[in-house]
Amino acid sequence: MDGYDVLKLENQVCFPLYACAKELVRQYGPYLSELNLTYTQYIVMMVLWEKETVGSRELAECLHLDYGTLTPVLNRLRQAGYLVKTRSSDDERVLTLSLTDAGRALKEKAVSIPGSLAERMGLTEEEFGTLYRLAYKALNHMEAGDR
Q: Distance between CA atoms of 134 and 139, rounded to whole angstroms?
């Protein structure tokens, strides 16, 4: 093994994570097309289904997205009638997002998606839990190093 083996694609943990994430998002495609949602719109809706109302800053942090990415997604979801945006009367920069009745109804159509995708991954429940914990451990550690 020479000093450049560390640069081989097969020796990188980043590559299978990248390829797997890309493939996982692709696998969501048929399910989300039935709901007329992109993956990014779907993860926004998941936060709203959980919280009902959320500030845009909290949403951006939760999803690890910047406002430049989030703004057009929110606009499309608002146009689709799934959420409403309101500005604080105290501070116009503060934007609150709330789920509409149409957004709540979409939740029922989406409830089977996570199980379907977990099944497609071919992991046992234990393996799935381990992957989940390790992915968040790595993410949290890297983000803490950025602060």
A: 8
